[in-house]
Amino acid sequence: MPDVAASDKPLRVVMWGTYDLGKPRTRILRDGLLEIGVEVTEIHGEVWSSDTDKSQLSWAMMFLRLFQIFLAYPALIYRFLRSPQMIW
Question: 3-state DSSP helix/strand/coil percent for the chain, to nearest 5?
């Protein structure tokens, strides 16, 4: 069996979490990775879509978002572990 160099295998990245898709840096990172041929798998929990500026949230809304995050992560962990792209 021929020895395959690490550079011969496509780079695979999992973007995982409750990151804010409304922020340009997230889209730039994802699009840049795709543009250079990286295989990107997104496992995303939508929490922040209705908040344009997190610094302006009231304490009550911040508590609600933290509760939503608390609920989102078990599902994100499950989806990560069940992802067919995962090679251990």
Answer: 50, 15, 40
> What spatial distance separates the first Cα and last Cα of the chain, rounded to whole Å?
21
What phi and psi values does residue 3 have, to the nearest 5 degrees?
A: -80, 120
CA distances (Å), 61 to each of 35, 47, 51, 67, 70, in order?
Answer: 37, 12, 10, 10, 14
pTM here is 0.64
How far does CA 47 lie from the centroid of its chain? 12
Angle at 7 between CA 19 and CA 85, to 5 degrees: 45
- DSSP class of residue 48? S
Q: How does pLDDT run across 4-58, given as a tens digit for each residue? A: 555 677 788 888 887 877 778 888 999 999 999 998 988 888 776 655 566 666 7
